[in-house]
Amino acid sequence: MTRVLKIGGSILTDKSRELQPRPDEIRRVAQEIAAHPDDVVLVHGAGSFGHIPAKKYGLPQEFNREGLRVTHRSVAQLCEMVIEALSHAGVEGLPVHPLSCLCLRDGRIENFFMEPIEEMLKDGIMPVLHGDVAMDATGKAAIVSGDQLVSYIARYLKADVVAIGSNVDGVLFSGRPLPRITRKELSQVQSAIGGSDEVDVTGGMRGKLLELLDLADLGIDSMIFNAGIKGNIARALKGEYVGTRIGGGN
User: How far apart (Å, rounded) are the C-alpha atoms in residues 242 and 250?
Assistant: First the structure.
């Protein structure tokens, strides 16, 4: 059973302060993942390690070489913290930096060298990806969100479980999480669905939802859940729908 799990940067970092990890949460997340580690591709958000430096350098609107270098170095540091925590929890993971293995066109993934990820899974290694800067054939450089990575990887691997863990209980409508949402219902609720409360250059909740609805169109259901609640990550990895289910499956 192939599983694609994303843990949002709001769980792993304090998104209001640059380069501010949440070590206790990183350890907890790693321990929950370690309960069901087989055939998992892990993607994590950049949080304050990505969004704040990217905004500082005007990315992705401006092409800034120094900004690309500094932002990538920053998100790679967070990735190493996650991998180290996984190792302490008994899970061997390796970093897969999107900057080095994919290209965008108009902000969307055009080419993605997936073979190393497939080989890692075969060998019992957890691939760990993250939101990153990336080269773009149209705009020279852009940002690839963890949500877009999840959608692409899940589609490529025909994932059985796709879960995005954020700091809210799902897709909220009138203050309550919707149990399920399909594309048909999007027009009824999208006015109530906004972006992130903190600095976010990748689209917030609306961006997550649109990526996952594209996936649902291909017959792959997913979920958005609160990864800040202990036990939810393990439940999601078991295939239990937590939070909001995205798609029209039964």
Answer: 15
Give me the domain span that covers residue 233. 3-246
H/E run at residue 86: helix 65-88
Q: Up-side HSE of residue 15: CA atoms within 13 Å toward CB?
A: 20
Instruction: State the pLDDT at residue 47.
Output: 92
Q: Number of structural domains, the chain?
A: 1
**CATH number, domain containing residue 59:** 3.40.1160.10
Predicted confidence at residue 192, as pLDDT, reads: 58
pLDDT, residue 201, reads 46
Q: Which residues does the chain have with pLDDT short of 70?
A: 190-204, 249-250
CA-based nearest residue to 46, from 90, 12, 83: 12
- Spatial neighbors of 55 by CB under 8 A, at least 6 apart, are 199, 201
CB 207: neighbour CB atoms within 10 A? 17
